[in-house]
Amino acid sequence: MTERQNESPRQSGAETIPESIPESRQLPADHPPVPAPKLGVLLVNLGSPDRAETASVRRYLAQFLSDPRVIEIPKLAWQPILRGVILRTRPAKSAKLYASIWDRERDGSPLKLITEDQASGLQARFPDCRIDYAMRYGSPAVADRLAALKDAGCERILLLPMYPQYSAATTATVVDEAHRWMAKTRWQPTMRTAAPWYDDPAYLDALEADLRTQLGALDFEPQLLLFTFHGMPKRTLELGDPYHCQCQKTARLMAERLDVATRIVFQSRFGPAEWLQPYLDEALEGLPAEGVQRVAVAAPGFTADCLETLEEIAIQGREQFEGAGGAKFAYLDCLNAKPAHLDLLETVISRELAGWRESG
Ligand SMILES: C=CC1=C(C)c2cc3[nH]c(cc4nc(cc5[nH]c(cc1n2)c(C)c5CCC(=O)O)C(CCC(=O)O)=C4C)c(C)c3C=C
Ligand SMILES: [Fe+2]
Ligand SMILES: [Fe+2]
What's the predicted TM-score (pTM) here? Predict the structure, then answer.
């Protein structure tokens, strides 16, 4: 083999070398193909089942809930509960919920399709990079998309866990998974991970503009705007996870920018342990008795609408509030693939690529 082909513009086998490439850059006929070096960006969100069907949801939940970053209970104690109880009962119920939000035309979950749209929207803004997306659980798998970026010649890859607030159960497990692939890879790309953007002015600007627009379009004036974040076991806060503090900071900085009363709550409790409080469902059920008849709910920790927003908040949350006597309820959707979100993600990606694009 000759020296490394960092500067080689070759894309494929020796017989396809264009005439214009100088002799010194050509590879011998028996050399493995070396694509031209590029920058890659991989957006990674949580993931969904491939279909809104029990078997598919069971596979997805088995992978998700076997992750020791998500369920911090020793494997020997947890697996019998997971296999013997949860995977026997939950998949059928969750499949029905997924069916209620499924995009039938594009045949996918909102979370996956919105992430796909974010990646293609960003690709148009970064013609010099290859932008792709993956799901931490389910498909497309992180390892497969990292391998595809590498095969396309990306020698430097920016990993973008799609969570504005860091938690071990979300951000860290994306990094773990990427590094498991790295550990099996001979010629590793250089990899960076984007920092969480929970207090970044670009994030707050995007949220503020979007929430103002959505609030302004309502047919009522909310007395209260609830900021709901996905919950975490309370124990994770005691163990040093910064998630709770980062959610609090996002909510406080947003409250300072908006001229409506706000409150922070946490949703999607799982299992019998105490989770971060106050809980969304209890808040919605208690508000009418406090005299709050008109409420709006926003979920600034979700970069894409998903089961936890479209079903748990927009459907169940409304029922809880109205069932307790509330009059007006509005769910404000996530930033999704809206231009304001692409602007924010462009800012984050450009910052994280600093030094790479210039030298690339
Ligand atoms: C946005 C941040 C998220 C945190 C933090 C988080 C922690 C966390 N989640 C579970 C259990 C479940 N979460 C489920 C769905 C789900 N969770 C997030 C995000 C966070 N989770 C998203 C975006 C989604 C939606 C996925 C989709 O396809 O739309 C589910 C599955 C759904 C169900 O069956 O109800 C479970 C279970 C735990 C235990 C946890 C922290 C330890
Ligand atoms: Fe979750
Ligand atoms: Fe805190």
Answer: 0.91
